[in-house]
Amino acid sequence: MKNLIVLKVITTVLVISIIFSLFSCIDEDRIEVPPVKLEDVNGSYKGRLITVQGEFRNEKVVDFKIKKDTLEFPEFPLKEIVTAVVKDPAKVQNALTAMGKVKYKVKYASVLNAEKNWVELTFAPKELELQIPVDGVNKKTIVTIAAKQKGYFVGLDYTLRFVLAAEKLTVDGVQLNPFEPIYYNFPYCVKTGN
User: Are residues 26 and 99 in the same domain?
Assistant: First the structure.
């Protein structure tokens, strides 16, 4: 009987010591996220862009810059917008080539979180005006772009995440209907320089 009690006590002590050693390891493995400043957001980025429109999905890598309070695309991704206006897939590439690179700027306001380890960005996109060539005629297209979510710059890996959406297209003064919104998801953008 004494041996059984001693065995139970030893087993209990052993189990408790294992549990405490596991919890001490968990505390040691905690990653400290380095503090950031609002200015750390500024710079050049290379980002993974996932464009989603209905059940269609496209992925590519894009470059953009952030200065002060503005995110600037030197070449905004237009393929889905042009496809919605032109309709004929054979003519989409010709229209994109004729349009060339289209720059787009998005203003934002930023706030540092209480722990100072990430920056929250509230975007205020403006309309994008395009001249899309279709059969020798330029169609004046107004793209209503919105940001339904806030963006985040994370101090742990100096990456940026955000989403924009082309919610509405107006072609020559007439709203395109039906139109499936186009979502521009940037789930992981790496800072490449200042």
Answer: no
Higher pLDDT, 150 or 89: 150
| Residue type, position 41, single letter | V
DSSP state of 116: S
The pTM for the full model equals 0.81
Helices 89-99 & 79-86, crossing angle to 10 degrees? 120
Contact present, 119 and 153 (Cβ < 8 Å): yes
Alpha helices in the chain (DSSP H): 2-28, 79-86, 89-99
Q: What does each C-alpha distance from 175 to 50, 98, 141, 143, 144 come to in angstroms?
A: 25, 23, 9, 10, 11
pLDDT digit string, tens, across residues 71-107: 999 999 999 999 999 988 889 999 999 999 999 999 9
42 and 95 within one domain: yes
Whether 95 and 166 map to the same domain: the answer is: yes
Strand 182-193 and strand 174-175: the pairing is: unpaired
* DSSP H/E element including 90: helix 89-99
- Residue 89: how many CB atoms within 10 A of its CB? 8
